[in-house]
Amino acid sequence: MKVRRALVSVYDKSGVVELCRFLQEIGVEIISSGGTAKHLSAEGIKVIEVSDFTGTPEMMDGRVKTLHPKIHGAILADRNNKKHMGEVKKHGIKLIDLVVVNLYPFEDTVRKNPPMKEIVENIDIGGPTLLRAAAKNYRHVAVVCRPSRYHNLVEEMKKSGGWLSDKMLERLALDTWEHVSHYDVFIEQFFRKAFGYQDEFPEYLNLTFRMKQTLRYGENPHQRATVYRDEQSRNPSILDAKQLQGKELSYNNILDCNAAFKLIREFDEPTGVIVKHNNPCGVASSEDILEAFKIAKAVDPEASFGGVVALNRRVTEPLAREITSRFVDIIIAPGFDDKALDVLRAKKNMRVMETPGVNMKRVPYRKYRSILGGLLVQDANVKLLEHTKVVTNRKPTEKEMKALLYAWKIVKYVKSNAIIFARENRVVGIGAGQMKRIDAEKLAAMISRDYGGDVRGCVMASDAFFPFRDGIEYAAKQGITAIIQPGGSIRDEDVIKAANEHGIAMVFTGIRHFRH
Prior knowledge:
Blueprint: E1 5-9, H1 16-25, E2 29-32, H2 34-42, E3 48-49, H3 50-54, H4 69-76, H5 82-90, E4 98-101, H6 106-111, H7 116-121, H8 126-136, E5 142-144, H9 150-160, H10 166-194, E6 210-214, E7 226-229, E8 242-245, H11 251-264, E9 271-276, E10 279-285, H12 289-299, H13 301-304, E11 308-311, H14 317-323, E12 330-333, H15 338-345, E13 351-354, E14 366-371, E15 374-379, E16 389-390, H16 398-411, E17 419-423, E18 426-431, H17 437-450, E19 459-462, H18 470-478, E20 482-485, H19 492-501, E21 505-508
Parallel strand pairs: 1-2, 1-4, 2-3, 4-5, 11-12, 12-13, 19-20, 20-21
Antiparallel strand pairs: 6-7, 8-13, 9-10, 9-11, 14-15, 16-21, 17-18, 17-19
Helix pairs in contact: 8-10, 12-14, 14-15, 17-18
C-alpha cells in the first residue's frame, strides 16, 4: 500500500516534526488539527486543518472534531469493495492512507491527582476511535500510535518509495490494539477504584501490565521469561529496585527477591533475611545490622550459599565484607555506602539491588496465579493475625510471647506445611514444604542440630493448625516451651490437652498462613 494522504493528531509530539517533514518531502498530503496543526505549521510543514477537510468546525471545546464521516469514511473504506469506493466517490471523500495518533495522557493525569473534571477531560474519545478504525482497515491503512515506530515507518518507505508491506501494516495494527486495550483497561481500573468497586471480583477480569524487562531465562535455561509491572500498584516492590551491578536477573531471581523483600518488610528493627528457592533459610534481628546478618547466616550456612540476602538498613563496608566472604547471588538493601560498593564490585556477577520502600505501609492488593486454561485470583495475604488468644493453662512469658510473634511473622513466608523454631530475635530452625506437619517439625529440628543450634527453650510457629497431638508431643521432646498456631482443628481440644500435659504455652491467632 502506498501512502498518499496522512492524518496526524498527537499529544506526544516527540519526533512528529521529523516524520511529517519526511512525509511532505515524498509528496504525502498531511491533515491535522488543533495543537498538532499549529506545532507542524510553526516548523514550516504544510498541513490541512481537519475542519477545512471536513467542512465542519470543531465543537464542544474540541470534544468533537475528527468524529466525522469524511474522516472515518476516508479511513474505513475497503479499497477492494466496489460499493465502498462508489460511496467514497459519491460523497467526495478523500482517502486517508496513514493515521498517526497518540492519546491524551490519562495515566500521567491520574498520577497528579487533579480534580475529577480534569481527569474526565483526559479520557480520549476521538483518538481511540481513529486508531480502531485504522487498525480495522489495516490492509489499506497504516496506523502508528507510538513515536518509537516512526523510524521503522520512515526506513521502509524510504526503501520502497512510499510503499508499506503487509508485514509492517500488521505489526502497526497489532501495536494499536495493544495500546488502545491498555488505555481502556487503565481507565476502567481507575474508575473501579474511584467509584468504590475495587473490592469486587468482576465478571470479566481485564488486566494491564507494562513490560519492565526481559529476563535472563525462566525457571530453567530453556524457558523464556519477562517481567511486567502493574503501574497502578501502590505497594513498593522489588520491581522498584535499582540494579547497581551484576548479571541480568532470571525468573527465579525475581521470585526469590520478591520473597525476601516481602519478609524483610515485616521488621522495624535491624534485620537480615536470607532466602533460597523462595523460602527463608535464615532470619535474625539485632541492634547492629552486621550482627543480625551474621546470626541469620548461621541458621543454615549451607542453604545460604548462593542465596538472596535482604537487609533493612544501609550496607556498610564491614557488612559488605561479611556478605562477600561466602557466595551470595543477590543482595537487596535500601542503600549502600560508597566503600561497601567498592567491596561488592569485586564480585562482579553478584546482583546488587537498591530497594526503596522497605518501611512503607502495606496496602491490600490482588494476587494472580496462572493455571492451565485460566487464572486464579485472590486477595493477597497482607494480614498477620486476627488476635492472640492463650488457650492453655500456662500463659507464655513476656520473652516467649515476643519470640512467638517474631516466629509468626516468618512462618507466613515459608512454603506450607511450615514450621519455625525461634527465639525472640532469631530463627533457630525452619521446616518448609512438607506434606506432613510433623515432618516439617523434624526438618526444622534437623537443620538446627546440624549447625549447632539449641532448640531447647525455643518457641514454635505453625502456619496452620495441628491435625493431631503428635506434633505437640514431638515439640515437647525437642524442648519447645511455647507454640503459636491458628487453631481451628476438630482436634483442638486434644492438641491443647497435649500442650497442657507437657507444660507448653499455646497461643491461637485465628488466621492461617498457607503458602502454596
